[in-house]
């Protein structure tokens, strides 16, 4: 990405949306995505179509994934950065690998790598709705996100959209990501998705400090 492109991404005041047509089995729909910052907007009619479709088909919205991810393992999510990055891996890798159509969050490179305003809004929304609770120091790795009792009841429904095999794979993936920790997740993502790491404030430090390592299905080897 050129310096001029990066400057425009930071300074644009009006979105430049393009229409993105998409389809899943039995349904054609579209959304709008900004050419500059990648923000995604679903027109109300298209969102309604997807909502109706999801009642009878395996289609996952961002809120579905956030709740299902927390439901898949009993331990809390440690830190907002880890929460965001685990959802990134769910949407970029887990969902495609398991053939699960899902909402496009519109990821873009930001201070800690891939970032999505839509995912941040979802996390804030489910917290305000009393489905999750945060404890510890806000905005740090000492902040913990857990499902409330009501949240567990609500999260059971999107989790049940997954087949038993997909549930098992999500459980394994969540455990892998938990063991990696936020630095390990960032290291993996920065290496595999370098275009989304260009704006990161900690990329060089993360890639320099972590050494050769393997956890679960995520692996990398530092260059000498």
Write a structural description.
This protein has 224 residues and is α+β, with helices and mostly antiparallel strands. The chain folds into two domains: 1-57, no CATH class; 58-220, no CATH class. 48% of the residues lie in helices and 19% in strands. It contains eight helices and ten strands. A three-stranded antiparallel β-sheet has the order 1-2-3. A three-stranded antiparallel β-sheet has the order 4-8-7. A two-stranded antiparallel sheet has the order 5-6. The radius of gyration is 18 Å and the shape is globular.
- What class, by secondary structure content? alpha+beta
Rg over CA atoms: 18 Å
Fraction of helical residues: 40-55%
Q: How many structural domains does the protein architecture include?
A: 2
What is the residue-averaged pLDDT?
Answer: 84
Give the SSE order as H and E letters: HEEEHHEHEEHEEHHHEE
Termini separation (Å)? Answer: 26 Å
Strand order of the largest sheet: 1-2-3
**Strand fraction:** 15-25%
Extract low-pLDDT stretches. Answer: 1-9, 201-224
Shape: globular
> How many helix segments?
8
Number of strands: 10
* Largest sheet entry: 3 strands, antiparallel
Keywords:
3-stranded antiparallel β-sheet; 8 helices; 224 residues; alpha+beta; disordered C terminus; 48% helix; disordered N terminus; 2 domains
Describe what is shown at a glance.
The protein has 224 residues and is α+β, with helices and mostly antiparallel strands.
Describe the secondary structure blueprint for this structure.
Blueprint: H1 3-11, E1 17-24, E2 27-34, E3 40-41, H2 44-54, H3 62-71, E4 77-78, H4 80-97, E5 108-110, E6 113-115, H5 117-128, E7 132-136, E8 143-147, H6 149-160, H7 164-192, H8 203-209, E9 213-215, E10 218-220
Antiparallel strand pairs: 1-2, 2-3, 4-8, 5-6, 7-8, 9-10
Helix pairs in contact: 3-4, 3-6, 4-7
């Amino acid at each position: 990405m050129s310096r001029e492109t990066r400057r425009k991404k930071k300074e644009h005041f009006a979105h430049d949306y393009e229409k993105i047509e998409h389809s899943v089995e039995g349904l054609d729909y579209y959304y709008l995505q900004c050419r500059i910052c990648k923000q995604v907007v679903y027109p109300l009619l298209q969102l309604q179509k997807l909502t109706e479709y999801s009642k009878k088909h395996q289609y996952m919205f961002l809120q579905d994934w956030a709740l299902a991810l927390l439901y898949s393992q009993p331990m809390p999510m440690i830190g907002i950065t880890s929460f965001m990055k685990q959802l990134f891996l769910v949407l970029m890798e887990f969902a495609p690998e398991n053939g699960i159509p899902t909402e496009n969050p519109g990821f873009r490179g930001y201070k800690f790598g891939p970032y999505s305003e839509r995912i941040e809004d979802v996390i804030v929304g489910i917290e305000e709705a009393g489905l999750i609770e945060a404890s510890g120091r806000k905005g740090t790795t000492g902040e913990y996100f857990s499902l409330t009792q009501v949240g567990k009841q609500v999260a059971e429904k999107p989790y049940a959209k997954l087949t038993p095999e997909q549930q098992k794979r999500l459980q394994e993936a969540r455990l892998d990501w938990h063991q990696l920790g936020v630095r390990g997740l960032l290291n993996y993502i920065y290496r595999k998705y370098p275009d989304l790491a260009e704006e990161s404030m900690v990329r060089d430090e993360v890639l320099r400090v972590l050494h050769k390592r393997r956890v679960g299905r995520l692996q990398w080897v530092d260059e000498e």
